[in-house]
Amino acid sequence: MKILVLNSGSSSVKYQLFNMQQETVLAKGLVERIGMPGAILSHESMGKEKVSIETSISDHSRAIQMVLDALMDDEYGVIREASEIDAIGHRAVHGGSEFASSVLVNEKIKATIRMLFNLAPLHNPPGLKGIEA
Questions:
Q1: Do 57 and 98 sit in the same domain of this protein?
Q2: Is the same domain home to 46 and 103?
Q3: How far apart are CA 35 and CA 85, in angstroms?
Q4: SS (H, E, C) the chain
Q5: Which site among 69, 76, 116, 117 is 20 to 30 Å from 107 CA-CA?
Q6: Per-residue pLDDT reduced to its tens digit, 27-80
Q7: 67 and 99 both lie in a single domain
Q8: Which residue did the predictor score with more confidence, 120 or 107?
Q9: Which residue range forms the structural domain that includes residue 36?
Q10: How many domains does the chain contain in total?
């Protein structure tokens, strides 16, 4: 089982792809400066050289697409298709009293996260963008 874990911040996305059977990190990385000049994706796959790609990254949707592209790249990727990812987790900075443990995301959960934007205004809105991407 492969699980992709994301953490979307105000201008970044951190990620790790885990192989749960082997309890290893297959790949990890960081997209920085989303929506700003000089945006960069830093990607490191197990047993391969670290790669840095500087490009225009307009929003979190584009950043997460770049993460998937890096994970599937012929040279430095670790999977061939996105369907190899069995589950995706996303960190929420502040869930108030609504979230005390992991939940499956649905429309009701996303609406609740929107209601909690004021608890972490720099993190919850981009976190939701990451979830929706």
A1: no
A2: no
A3: 27
A4: CEEEEEEECCCEEEEEEEECCCCEEEEEEEEECCCCCCCEEEEEECCCCCEEEECCCCCHHHHHHHHHHHHHCCCCCCCCCHHHCCEEEECCCCCCCCCCCCCCCCHHHHHHHHHCHHHCCCCHHHHHHHHHC
A5: 69
A6: 999 999 999 999 999 999 999 999 999 999 999 999 999 999 999 999 999 999
A7: no
A8: 107
A9: 2-87
A10: 2
Residue 93's pLDDT is: 75
Q: What percent of the chain has pLDDT over 70?
A: 99
Q: Which pTM was predicted?
A: 0.86
Residues 70/51, Cβ–Cβ less than 8 Å: yes
Residue 34 shares a structural domain with residue 75: yes
CA of residue 19 relative to chain centroid, distance: 16
Is the same domain home to 21 and 47? Answer: yes
